[in-house]
Amino acid sequence: MAIPAQGVGMRIGFIGLGNMGSGMAANLLTAGHEVIAYNRSPAKVAALAERGATAAPTVAAACAADVVISMLADDTAVEAVTFGDHGIVASLPDGATHMSSSTISVALAERLTAAHADAGQVFVSAPVFGRPAAAAAAELFVVAAGPASAVAGLQPAFDAVGQRTFVLGEDPHTANLVKLSGNFLIASVIESLGEALALVGKAGVDKQQYLELLTSTLFGAPAYRTYGGLLARGEFEPAGFAAHLGLKDVRLVLAAGEQLEVPMPVASLIRDRFLALLAGGGRDLDWSALGALAAWEAGGPKPG
């Protein structure tokens, strides 16, 4: 089943309507694409159906499409919907494309590429940078890799969910490696911001004023503005991206580093900081709570 030419609405199966997926699927509908949605929680499918989506009772039903997009939490969730007698590989038509926007391991991306090729299908990795608000506003940054013709055919979908697409070549796992490296950098920003805010805060400096100084001079990047703001306000609930998922991503980047024989000592430190946050009850807080550990250890309130 070939992807329609650009300018023609696509028939898209969408699996995973969580914090990110619900906004992405809604924007595909807004852009004029047909969406067949599946989610373990039927209520989220019903909400999308009210906007024009078709509710799929099973993963297999969502695969009756030109392309199926999965947006799930981790490797385990992606494996559960992809493999097996009624999974994506078994149900997707010959020549159709599985586009994974999930943040998964490099190893799983390689396995998915091989499994879809063996089934006569195409696999494209297209993870995204951005929090749920960006997903809802179609302002994500898409990082795509896969066969050139398939990636080009998916451009209408990329355009519907994001503000810019970066194509990184024909090996899908490359996009996953880049996504993991980016999340590692964000976690590093959160930790270092937290330590700096703890230092000046304990000395009596107003955290909001300090953050305004930083982001107006040395560090104007969105990560500093977004996560600095959450830290300064102590705003960790509801979680846009939960701390246990941050730990998962740092573990995955460490696994990639080990495979490539690249030492990542800072990533090892960040992993241990996430473990401390989870051990203290912060599993479901926003991952920005990682930066609040320093203030807690300096005598401040416990994160959350």
UniProtKB/TrEMBL annotation:
User: Has UniProt tagged this entry with the keyword NAD?
Assistant: yes
Where are the catalytic residues? K179
Q: Which residues form the 6-phosphogluconate dehydrogenase NADP-binding domain?
A: 11-169
Q: Which GO terms describe its molecular function?
A: NAD binding; NADP binding; oxidoreductase activity
Give the originating organism. Mycolicibacterium vaccae ATCC 25954
Pfam families noted in UniProt: NAD_binding_11, NAD_binding_2
This protein's name: 6-phosphogluconate dehydrogenase
Key word Glycosyltransferase present? no
Q: Name one GO biological process term.
A: organic acid catabolic process
- Return the similarity comment: Belongs to the HIBADH-related family.
Return the SUPFAM superfamilies for the record: 6-phosphogluconate dehydrogenase C-terminal domain-like, NAD(P)-binding Rossmann-fold domains
What keywords does the record list, in alphabetical order? Answer: NAD, Oxidoreductase
